[in-house]
Amino acid sequence: MVTLKGITIYLRALEPEDLDFVFAIENNETIWEVSNTQTPYSRFLIMQYLENAHQDIHQAKQLRLAICKNDTLEPIGLIDLFDFDPKNHRAGIGIVIENKKNRNQGIGSEALSLLIKYAFNHLNLHQLFANIGSNNEASLKLFTTFGFQKIGTKKDWNFHQGKYTDEELFQLIHRKH
Predict the structure, then answer these.
(1) Range of the domain at 99
(2) Overall domain count for the chain
(3) pLDDT at position 169 over 70
């Protein structure tokens, strides 16, 4: 699909072969803070999830795509639309690049750009939102670069490593020309 292909990366649907990759991300405790995960996922649950990944966003209320470099099928990250609300034309958006060596190379920016365009132009969404930990400087910078505006702070929202941290709520409204 040309819509989800950028200069250096493309976004694709999840495949059964992505089981090990998704399993590794969902069970990586260093990422749990940004994904609000509290318990590990079994291979069986992830296999069931992948078996249902063919569901349309209107059925599943979410869309999870693999981020891949143009020269490979192997995923390097995941990007999601979640809490899809067709009545109010909105969805949450989140992204994770699994390996630190692939971060700070513009991959997240390109993936976010592709998914924002897809959400607004193909899904006809009016707005996207993102929940970002106040200490997640990379994500704060990434989302504000695309025009997401901070609309609120959830004080002491997340409990991680013995302390409470704030979470920022960002929103991007599609202004049709």
Answers:
(1) 2-173
(2) 1
(3) yes
